[in-house]
Request: fold
Amino acid sequence: MNRISIFLCALEIESNLACSFTEFQQEFAQLAQKYQMNWQMNDASKLKRVLIMGSKSSHCVADLLHRGHESEMEAQILVFV
Reply:
């Protein structure tokens, strides 16, 4: 029987590191390679690009558009369906 160990974790780190995000990624990549990790790191200061699908109810669509316009969503709305 083959066993697969999976550990999923989402973290947001606030730091005063002396290195840049890219440098931190490069250093972490070395550690990840050593332990054969599959990993992904995203810069939280960059807005996520999203597609939003709304229902036919106009209040739902209006609410989402309003939140996007008022920057209440930490995302860049690319498409609204």
